[in-house]
Amino acid sequence: MSRLRYLTAGESHGPALVGILEGLPSGLPLESSDIDRDLARRQRGYGRGGRMKIEQDTAEILSGVRFGFTLGSPLGLLIRNRDFTNWQMRMGAAPGGPDPHPVTIPRPGHADLAGGLKYDHLDDLRNILERASARETAIRVALGAVARTLLRDLGIQIGSFVRSIGEAEAGPLDEETQRLWREDAEALGLRADRTETRALDEPSSRSFVEAIRRAQQRRDTLGGVIEVVATGVPVGLGSHVQWDRKLDGRIAQAMMSIPAIKAVELGDGWQAAHLYGSQVHDAIKWGAQGLSRASNRAGGLEGGVTNGEPLVVRAAMKPLSTVPAALPSVDLTTLQAAPAHVERTDTCAVPSAGVIAEAVLALCLADALLETLGGDTIASLRQPMARLRLSTRARAGHLFVIGPMGSGKSTVGAAVARRLGLPFTDLDQVVETRAGVSISEIFASQGEPEFRRLESEALTQVVQRELGVIAMGGGTVLNEGAWQLMRRNGAIVALNAPPEELARRLLRNERAVQQRPLLAGADPTQRLHQLVRERQRFYGRADVCLNTLGLNVEDAAEMVIGLTRSLEGRIAERAREKSSDLPPESSGMAGQDGEE
Ligand SMILES: Cc1cc2nc3c(=O)[nH]c(=O)nc-3n(C[C@H](O)[C@H](O)[C@H](O)COP(=O)(O)O)c2cc1C
């Protein structure tokens, strides 16, 4: 780890687990519920033992966050071990001991013997097993949830699912899960959470449950294979120039550090070793989307650098070493043969290992991202991130204009489109046309959630049209799905102005105020201030932001075009130089010179 460092401490039955994460940019919105969600996901899964019923993990944020935003200072997290109340006499820090029940018979496969010999704890192997226990992964999941929040904010999603448990293999992914696998890994992981084994479908989950039951009947344990996927990953994370900067190596190391993970595969890893090169490597194409791949067998990494395709990592977990029908071992006090110590144990922890692997991948990717983009503040990461995201494109794609009411989305958006000779679309109008009624009527009769659903449908339709400039609704930014669509399909510009100025512009036209359902009722100025405050963090996510205070429409349009151009990379430049090679089907930002 170079840019984002973390350390954890804590014993399994000690008072608490603690973690420190250093290197986060300032200004990232963070709430403990973001962390607790993943802690709960780690604790679920068929096959876990009694401990998970005692612990209901929640994280306390000790430092690094104020009023819901990161400060840029080290983040401190704490998870209390509820079980400590039962272990106070045996696991306290005060002088005392020895433990009346020392562990002296090491478990084959666990850290007991090797650790006991190394640290001279042969009299009580608990001094080793307490820290070697996978309880430590709870705090890693908490730190990983913070890294995931950073990545999500920048358009990267991470998810996982279980591929096999013991001999039981999952069936093939259906069409919808394949789409999520390519486009939204977080939704993929949440879909896996719906089954008790984190399989992506019920029949696979039933076969996993059956395998775990058989292991329980024979008083045994089982491992399996998890798959972790990251989508929205830009080109260019990691580097080919030095062994310890290669992201494939760093991911493999991070995955291997999860207890009981014994093999890691990137893309088609093992299977590729049996095939010809022509059957394995992902052909490069030039088309309307710029440079793209015909397949993703490499799993999103070539030369230790991300190539813009989803990251695909598989990890194999061995069967847990605390086998209830105890394995042969030796009592280190008597040196006589004896059945190994049996600590309360899981039968299978593969479903949880997927959630842990998501956390570990999130930390690894966030580190690589910060290393590549720099950034002491979250705002300073946006533009370089957009540049990476758009770097394989021949054109920036659609230009999405977001911002609060009165920021000039429609007027400036239309002027930008005119200058570039592109079609202009007002998303609110598309919603109204499709619904056959006004937005106020939709709000009045069906409420805001239904309006947001109609808005998402309209956006899905609009992005498939010819490239153009699209003014988004003021609240579209609240919808994560809309962000993913915008990021996949173009560049995002936010227009903004101080709330007083927005109010002044809006109140000039009383009818316009009445037409906006969210300003209805109470004092519209006060309501507008509140809306801007609530949504500011979302508008701030745009690739570039322009404050339109004091600008006329044409000046603002010119600046928007300039800012969008600044996001384009060498491929877009090259495509413009060789415009005859451009695929003919659509026109776009980079293909046009406009009037400026
Ligand atoms: C989520 C999770 C839960 C685990 N639960 C157990 C368990 O209940 N019993 C056990 O013997 N090992 C369990 N392990 C595995 C051990 O922690 C691991 O095998 C041990 O620390 C030795 O490390 P190694 O297998 O990486 O060499 C678990 C691992 C994970 C990831």
Q: What's the short story on this structure?
A:
The chain has 596 residues and is of the alpha+beta class.
Determine the mean pLDDT.
Answer: 92
Q: What is the CATH-assigned architecture of the largest domain?
A: 4-Layer Sandwich
Oligomer state of the chains in this structure: single chain
Major β-sheet strand ordering: 8-7-9-15-10
Kindly state the percentage of residues in helix.
Answer: 40-55%
Number of H- or I-type helical stretches: 23
CATH superfamily grouping of the largest domain: Chorismate synthase AroC
Textual characterization of the structure:
The protein has 596 residues and is α+β, with helices and mostly antiparallel strands. The chain has 2 domains: 5-108 and 135-373, Chorismate synthase, AroC fold; 390-591, 3-Layer(aba) Sandwich (Rossmann fold). Helices cover 42% and strands 17% of the residues. It has 23 helices and 22 strands. It has a 5-stranded antiparallel beta sheet, with helices on both faces. A hairpin with a 4-residue loop joins β16 (328-331) and β17 (336-339). α1 packs across α6 (137-153) and α17 packs parallel to α18. The longest helix has 25 residues, at 439-463. The protein is elongated and about 90 Å long. The two termini are 45 Å apart. Residues 584-596 have low confidence and may be disordered. The structure holds flavin mononucleotide (FMN). Residues 49, 110-111, 132-134, 137, 258-260, 320-322, 345-346, 349, 352-353, 356 line the site of flavin mononucleotide.
Give the tags.
single chain; 596 residues; alpha+beta; Chorismate synthase, AroC fold; Rossmann fold; five-stranded antiparallel beta sheet; five-stranded parallel beta sheet; 22 strands; 42% helix; disordered C terminus; binds flavin mononucleotide
